[in-house]
Structure formats: C-alpha cells, structure tokens
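FAQ: What does a ligand-bound record look like?

Like this one, built around zinc ion:
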Amino acid sequence: MRAAIVEEIGKVSVKDIPKPSPGYEEALVKISTAGICHSDLHMALGDWQKAPTPFPLGHEGIGIVEELGPGAEGFIQKGDRVIFGLGGTAGAYWCGSCEYCLAGKPMLCPKQQYLFGIFGEYISVWAKALVKIPDEIDDKEAPLACAGLTAYSAVKKLFQLGISPGKPVAVIGAAGGLGHYAVQIAKLFGYKVIGIDIGPKKLEFVKQLGADYAVDASEALKFVKTEFRGVYASLVFSSKMAGFELGFKLLKMGGVLIPVGLPSFNEGQMPVSLHALIIKGLQIVSSLVGNVEEMRELVQLAADKKVKTHIGRVANLSELNQVFEELKEGKFVGRAIIDDFLK
Ligand SMILES: [Zn+2]
Ligand SMILES: [Zn+2]
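The answer part, i.e. the structure of the complex:
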C-alpha cells in the first residue's frame, strides 16, 4: 500500500509499504481522508525533538473499519465509519487505570502511545481510540480529529476555569486549522470572541466564522485595551512566539493565557514576568489535544452542523510536499486534506 514516510529529517517520500494486519484489540481502517496538520510539518522538519527515522506521518483521519483483530469486536464493528487519531498523542493507546487516565487526561498517561501513519491507504488502530461517526459527518471533516478536538478541549477549559459566557476572549491564529474551529466553538458556548490574525483575507474569513470582532494582530493590543480593558482569556494557536506574547499582553487582571499551538524550538522561549503574573493574578493553563469522550461530544456538534470544517485545500498523497510548502507560506485558510491515496 502507498504511504508517506519521513525517510530522513526534511525528506518526505511516498513509498510502497506492507499493508498492516490488526493485532489484539485493533481494527484495520481503510482511510478515506486525512487532514494535514502543522504538527506533521514540524515532525518532518525536526522542529521539535528529532524522531528516529524512518517514521510515517499523519494523525487525523476518517475511514471505514475493514477488519477486526481479536478482542476489538466489543468496541467497534466491521463497516463502521470512524474518526481517529485524537491529535496523535494517546491516539494509539492509553492504560485506562493511572491517575491521568482516570482524571480524563490520557494524553499524560506514562504508557500513552502516539498515532502516526494516517497518510496512507490503511492503518491498524487500537479500537478504543476510534469514534464512530454518523452519515451527517462528511469524509471531508477529517480535521475534526486533531484540529477540531484540540480547539474544542482548549475552549472547554474556559468553562473549567469559571469564565462565564458573554465575557470577551481572544482567539489568536483565528483563521488557521485550529483557530477556525475555536472561533465557532467559543461562539457556540456564548463567549464574546475577538478573532485575531494577519491580513484582510484572513480577517474576512474570521468574520464569516461568526467572530464578534476580527482584528489584525498589529492593532489587537490597542483595540482590546480600549474596548474591553483586556480579555478574560487568550487562546493561542499561533506557530510564532509573537502570538503567545500578544496573548499574554491582552489579558486583563486575573486573565488566563491558554497556549495550544506548539512553535518550533528555534522560535525560542517566551519571557514571562513573574511580577506581572503574581501582581495581576494571571494564570497560564496549557491545553494538549483532547480525549475520546471530547471527540464524541465534538462529533455530535458537527453532526448537528453547529461546528463546520473549512477546507482550504484538497490534495492527493503525491502532493504532500507541495502542501507543506503552501502551509509554511500561509497560502490557504482553514485546513488542507488528502482525499486520494492512490494518486
Ligand atoms: Zn495535529
Ligand atoms: Zn494511563
């Protein structure tokens, strides 16, 4: 079968590899569509820790269960349409009994396994990490699996932090793969959403998503300070450190920075004033992907057409490197997907 493999850091090729067969509690899934995430690009370029090569890419997808391994039948059936990947982290396994798993945070489980390898014709996946989807969800909505889930879990933190609906919150990187979901979900939850991105084309898109305000990053600080004297929270999906610094500056007293995007290591570190943090009562609460129950909640919202996926680019598997270039240059809004693995 065909699959995209990182042969060495910086070099991604489409190769013929053996079709997997499902092991214990696994299901073999024929992949219909896969979303292309910034994380795939970061991994391919070795922007974070450099993973040992070769390794497969891709961690958000929709497909059909074709075969079951022993023990999988209690969780999923042959022919089921499923969404899978969970943003990679814990997308392939979690133990279910450690303190993190029992607290609904399998992504922190010491035994969690990453799921990569969705840029191919087939993948064998741990059945408990699969979420069955109804017909109302189109194959094109594969980006719900990482971008959607990650945005959903981050926005839900606003509730957990006790920030009431109606309060102003900023979404930084609002036109991107994750941000475009976060704007819709934060609106759905009743927040006053200030969508921040760069350039008129992206801001027009942010307005269409339903943001109360679409503001250019260069004007955001002045706008937020004069209109609201700061936001209750900044959700940051940027891949640039400047986005996180802006998010921090936008906070009002007692505000919360929610960093979600993972910039490459060469972006450096964000300087945080401990003095400001303590005197202003600020908090930093990070958010990493989401869990399978949150995936089920999001699937319901998407099936009810309350959260929509905006596809900015449709490609076949052979075009992956080209899409990576376009992603680097910010050439499209929303998400890119692969819908043909044979070409
Ligand atoms: Zn991702
Ligand atoms: Zn665990």
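Follow-up question: can I read anything off the structure? Yes, for example: The two ends are 12 Å apart (CA to CA).
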